[in-house]
C-alpha cells in the first residue's frame, strides 16, 4: 500500500492552520483554488471576494482588529498586482498582513508563461519580507517566518510566493507533519529568544516622560491607532484618570478612551494642539494627520514625548523624549513611575478648564446644527440619526466603517466611539475603496458586533460588488450610502471649466443622479432601503439593526451640501 502524500496546496493550508490562522480573504483561480479549499479543510475559513483589492483591505483591517496577520490569497500576475493595494495599505498603516500568491511554473519563468510576473520584485517595495518557496519543503518554514515578521517591530505586510509547480509537488504525510512541527518549533524558539533591541534602556525614557508630564503646565495625551492596535486602552484610561491630563485621539484612536470622557479634547482640537506645552504621543506618527508636529498648528515650544514601536520613527521625528516600545507596556511603566510621585490636574486647573470650556462650547454649537431636521438631507441630519441609532445598541458597540470625503470628515466629528477598535476609516494613506472589505473583516473578526458602514457614494462604488459577498456569507453588515450624485457632490464646475469639445460630457465628479444603490443589494437577496426623510431613515435603521442581516440604505443627500475634497480643499 502506497504511503499517503501531501501536495503543496495542502501543506500550505495545514501550515497556516498550525500557525494559528483562522481566516483568509481572497479570490481563487489558477493556481491557488486548491490552496483555498485545503486551507478551509484544515480549519482556516476562506472568505471568497469579487476583487483582490477588497480582499486585501479586508486582510489589512483584520490585522488591526485582531493583532494577528490578516491573510490574503491571490492568483498570479494581475491577481498579485491587484493584491498590492491591500499589502501596501497594511504596511502604510502598520497593520500585520500576509499575502500569498501563486506564480508561474519555475521552469517556464522568463519565457512568457501564463500570468508571468516577477512577483518578488513587485511586492518588495511594500513588504517587510518577500520570499519564494522554490520547493514544497520550503512552504512551512516560509509561512511561519512571514507570519512572525508581519507582527514584529512595526507591523506590516509580508509576502510569500508559491509557484504553480511547487503547489503540485508532493511529499509523504509523515514528512509534511515533521516540516510543520520543525517550522513551529523554530518560530517558538525565535519568539522566546528575540534578538536584543538596539535601543536606549526603557527606564531612562520612562523617568524623563513622567517628569516632563509632571512639570508641564499644559500637557496633552495624543492617542493614535497604534495604541488601539496594542490594546493599550486600560493603561491609557488609567493615565488620563489618575493625572487629569486631557487627551486627543486620532480618527482611529477614537474609543481607546471613550469619546464621552470629560477630558476628551476632540471638540477643542485646535486649542489643544496649538497651546499644549508637552504632548505625549502614543502610537501615532507626527505625519500629515498631526500636521507634522510643527507650527503654526502646534506651538513652536511644545515638547513631544513620542512612544513608537519603531526606532526609525523616533529618529526621524527627533522628539524631546523618544521611547521605543509597545504602547501598552510603555504606558503601564509610565503609570508605575507616576504612582511613586503622583500628580493630578484638578478640573479647576486653568488648562483643563480652558479645554473643557472650549469643547463644551463647540459641542453646543454642533448640537444646535444637529438638532435641525434638514430636508433634503445635509450631512448633519442623517449622521445625527445614525449616531443615535448606534449608541442605542449599547455594548458591544457596533464597529463603524467610514469612508468618503465629506461623509468621513463630518462623520468623524458626529459619530461617537466609546469602545476601542470600533472605528475603521481611510487611514494613514487616506485610501478610498476600503469600505466593504473592512466590513467583511470586522464581521468575521468580531462576530458579536454589528457592523455599520457610513459610505460616500464614491467610496462605496470602489467595492460595491462585495455586497454579494455580504449576502453569500450572511454577515451582519448595514451599509448606509450617502448618495449626493458624485464625488464631493456632483457637478461643481465654474463656467470657465465647462468649455471645449467635451463640454456636454458629465463633470468628472458626477454620477447618475439618485442612483438606486439599494437595488444592488436587493438583486442579490439582501434588504435595500431608499430614504429621503428622517422618519424613513429611523425606520430603516431600526429594522436593519434588529435583523442583523446584509442591508444597504440608500440615503439621498442634497448634492450641494458639503465641500469639495471634504476638509482637504487646499490639496486639490
From TrEMBL:
GO terms for molecular function: 2-hydroxyacyl-CoA lyase activity; magnesium ion binding; thiamine pyrophosphate binding. The keyword Magnesium applies. Residues 404-555 form the Thiamine pyrophosphate enzyme TPP-binding domain. It catalyses: an (R)-2-hydroxy-long-chain-fatty acyl-CoA = a long-chain fatty aldehyde + formyl-CoA; a 2-hydroxy-3-methyl fatty acyl-CoA = a 2-methyl-branched fatty aldehyde + formyl-CoA. Belongs to the TPP enzyme family. Catalyzes a carbon-carbon cleavage reaction; cleaves a 2-hydroxy-3-methylacyl-CoA into formyl-CoA and a 2-methyl-branched fatty aldehyde. This is 2-hydroxyacyl-CoA lyase.
